[in-house]
Amino acid sequence: xxxxxxxxxxxxxxxxxxxxxxxxxxxxxxxxxxxxxxxxxxxxxxxxxxxxxxxxxxxxxxxxxxxxxxxxxxxxxxxxxxxxxxxxxxxxxxxxxxxxxxxxxxxxxxxxxxxxxxxxxxxxxxxxxxxxxxxxxxxxxxxxxxxxxxxxxxxxxxxxxxxxxxxxxxxxxxxxxxxxxxxxxxxxxxxxxxxxxxxxxxxxxxxxxxxxxxxxxxxxxxxxxxxxxxxxxxxxxxxxxxxxxxxxxxxxxxxxxxxxxxxxxxxxxxxxxxxxxxxxxxxxxxxxxxxxxxxxxxxxxxxxxxxxxxx
Length: 311
Ligand SMILES: [Zn+2]
Known about the structure:
- The protein is an alpha/beta fold.
- It has a single domain (55-305), classed as TIM Barrel (Alpha-Beta Barrel).
- Helix content is 29%, strand content 22%.
- The chain has nine helices and 16 strands.
- The protein has helices at residues 50-64, 71-83, 92-95, 116-128, 158-167, 178-185, 189-202, 216-219, 279-287, and strands spanning 33-34, 42-45, 69-70, 87-90, 104-111, 134-137, 145-148, 151-155, 171-176, 209-212, 236-240, 243-247, 259-260, 268-271, 294-299, 304-305.
- The strands form four sheets. Strands 4, 5, 6, 9, 10, 13, 14 and 15 form an eight-stranded parallel sheet that branches.
- Helix 2 (71-83) packs parallel to helix 9.
- The longest helix has 15 residues, at 50-64.
- Bound molecules: zinc ion.
- Zinc ion (ZN) binds at residues 111, 113, 175, 213-214.
């Protein structure tokens, strides 16, 4: 069993958030007003119970979505990871410092997106098999908080739910949708991220990782959430109806993170959005990786479940 597990990470030192305290941005481009003027995009709601949030969310999913891959295929994926001694399976924080040329080292990444209930179900099955993953929570998702015209009011009670995932041995991470929020709410991305990370850290979630979300708001403008981070080399200014939305100015480290999942030191990757017809093909793809490969394995809870009559 040990061969499947990563050593427990001990974080050295505190994350640097100094960049979030830099002075306000000057006008970014001629003719554009500086963006990031809304300083209350992140707030907290302490009234709504997580059971109610999830009940409504599950009902909304049931009406509007179907799981494209069979749950039994997800179980087969986990069994492959557990039963073969080829793999070392890691959450993001461990993957960045786990190297073994005799193994396939797997970064197990879950972008929760819209479906936290299935995320918990995955977390439980992984826990049964001694597997650990990182679950990335999306601030613009309806379960996260009340989405208002000027920001999000985070449901504090959902922390009880996220703690269930964490208690199963998994990590919580941030699913970055900062460009959407800058466009929709005129937030300052550094400021918002500092507020959210401060909240996580103050409430018992030692978040160190971020992965970027493929948001419709962003993609429809031919932008990409990864571009907010300088590591992706896309520094620029988006003209948001006369207001500047700047991106690519700061490293993900300036935002308070140790890693970004698309730049986590992997040489191979596969996912449930790689065009496979069945979940079983994801399993077969995993088997094709070789010793020494460092693999990003990305799955989205919404894609896995019982195959209902909507099929
Ligand atoms: Zn996503």
